[in-house]
What does this fold into?
Amino acid sequence: MGDFDGRRALVTGAGGGIGRAVAIHLAKGGARVACLDLEEAAAQEVAGEIGPGAIAVSADVSDESQVHAAVETTVDAFDGLDVLVNNAGITIIKSFEETSLEEWERTMGINLRSMFLVTQRALPALKASDAGAIVNMASMAAGHFTVPHVAYASSKGGIVAMTRDLAFELAAHGIRVNAVSPGPIATAILGKLTDEQIEQAGLRFLLGRMGRPEDVAEAVGFLASDRAGYITGATLPVTGGAELATRPLRPEDA
Ligand SMILES: NC(=O)c1ccc[n+]([C@@H]2O[C@H](COP(=O)([O-])OP(=O)(O)OC[C@H]3O[C@@H](n4cnc5c(N)ncnc54)[C@H](O)[C@@H]3O)[C@@H](O)[C@H]2O)c1
It folds into this structure.
């Protein structure tokens, strides 16, 4: 028996990277999964890879009407929802001084506003579930300086705070709310970093390798499952220990 037999899940940003791995992981555990992504073709490819039981939904998670339609489509298709994984996110690596207001707002919109929009819209269905679980994608950047991306780090800090407060509020409805905080994971998002930036960030791979999307999917799957039935409000680092070893950083090293 799988952890997610009979469960219905929505994963945002499921068209690639970590979201794709999460969608596949939940499906392997028996869940029906709605793969939501801005890139329609990517969402369809992952849903096709999973096979029957998965659907593709295309939407921009920062757009209210698109989110409403996407959640409606999912809940209608599955006749409910048990697991929500708020994963979609972007990063813009720039110093604070160089960051434009448009870039700040785009980052906040896709990384944080999206969590408000998707979670609030999904709430009635999650409340009706007897296994409601939300897992939000934070980042090691919420707690540690890594590279210059103040907007990204701020959005991820907001996700950690939101996860904690939502856990408090939604416990009464039997919904658990947790987050995972990945360190550097080998996906397209990280491809934006140069080797020099990785080196300057002092990132260390204590376990001898960079993280994989599947490493994060395992943690998300655990937190979304009944095996984490007594865990709520937590943010679980999935960093390979990268944040344990820091070196003194001066602003000019960044
Ligand atoms: N890769 C890392 O090192 C790392 C580390 C910490 C946290 N994270 C977080 O993990 C999450 C996934 O990142 P990833 O590394 O898999 O990135 P990725 O770029 O490989 O995948 C992100 C997915 O989200 C989709 N997406 C982007 N904007 C969207 C929007 N407006 N609406 C809907 N979908 C949208 C993209 O099309 C893509 O399929 C992000 O929240 C990211 O901040 C990643």
User: Anything to note?
Assistant: Residues 84 and 119 are 8 Å apart (CA to CA). The mean pLDDT is 93.
